[in-house]
Amino acid sequence: MDWQGQKITEQLMQLIIVAFAVIAFATGYLMASFQMMILIYAGGVVLTTLVTVPNWPFFNHHPLKWLDPSELEKHPKPQPSPNVSSKKKSVKK
Amino acid sequence: MHSFGYRANALLTFAVTILALMCAMASVSDNFNTPTPSAQVQVLNINWFQKQPNGNDEVSMTLNISADLQSLFTWNTKQVFVFLAAEYETPKNSLNQISLWDGIIPSKEHAKFWIHTSNKYRFIDQGSNLQGKEYNLTMHWHVMPKSGKMFADKIVMPGYRLPEEYR
């Protein structure tokens, strides 16, 4: 699961659970059945688990694009500066 | 969110938090219920009325108890505990409260009832104050919820009097 997938799965998890909670509470209230509320909510949690916990393919659509090795030649590693040695000389004097 | 375990943990934590919130809201929704219970008690007979060897008065009586407590039930109600108490004042105690009968009402269908019974618990005074005593019969109830706050209330029914003489 890539970075974008992780973000999507977190948002999706919260969205589905809250949606089911609202539906469950409304249904339970209207049907005057606390048990119905709990059952619907439990169903929502199970559904959310199945959708967001496994690493499904649609959470892998934005892989990181690593730089090409040829970029290394365009930006060589900096070398130590000659100024350092001159500073050392002045100290000796 | 980078592993199966982390995602499962995050989901379950969030789910339990929302569940607690839903239960709290269910409890709050009980406040919108406006119950209109009614109750009526007749004392059909004083079976016997005696002074105990230790000096306390004791009464046994036959009661007709009818009540409609259906309006106490909401979707969050598990059961209703109801009890009938005799309440009176004596020089020693400003409030004497003696439970005569109680019951647990498990559902709305059982909440409208009519029963004919003698007092389930003994009506014994702390002393010898019951001759000719006026008392109230009070029906108390406790609404026990599935989640959250318990409500309690009562109906006071005044105007009962015990006989002047033992029998």
Any overview of this molecule?
The complex is a heterodimer of chains A (93) and B (167). Chain A has 93 residues and is an all-alpha fold. Chain A has a domain at 3-56. Chain A is built from four helices and no strands. Chain A has helices spanning 3-31, 34-52, 71-74, 83-92. Chain A is rod-shaped and about 85 Å long. Chain B has 167 residues and is α+β, with helices and mostly antiparallel strands. Chain B folds into two domains: 1-31; 34-159, Immunoglobulin-like (Sandwich). Helices cover 16% and strands 48% of the residues of chain B. In chain B, strands 1, 2, 5 and 6 form a four-stranded antiparallel sheet that branches. Chain B has a four-stranded antiparallel sheet with strand order 4-3-7-8, with no helix packed on it. The longest helix of chain B is centred in the N-terminal third of the chain and has 26 residues, at 4-29.
CATH top level label of the largest domain in chain B: Mainly Beta
Strand content of chain A: under 5%
Number of domains of chain B: 2
The coarse silhouette of chain B is elongated
SS field, number of helical segments of chain A: 4
Structural class of chain A: mainly alpha
Question: Helices and strands of chain B: which structural class?
Answer: alpha+beta
Share in helix of chain B? 10-25%
Q: What would the CATH topology of the largest domain in chain B be?
A: Immunoglobulin-like
Number of strands of chain A: 0
Helix content of chain A: 55-70%
Shape of chain A: rod-shaped
Q: What is the typical, i.e. mean, pLDDT of chain A?
A: 81
Query: Largest contact between protein chains?
Result: A-B, 27 and 21 residues
Average of pLDDT of chain B: 87
Figure out the total of helices of chain B: 1
Number of strands of chain B: 8
**Strand and helix order of chain A:** HHHH
What would you call the quaternary organization? heterodimer
Largest sheet of chain B: 4 strands, antiparallel
Largest sheet of chain A: none
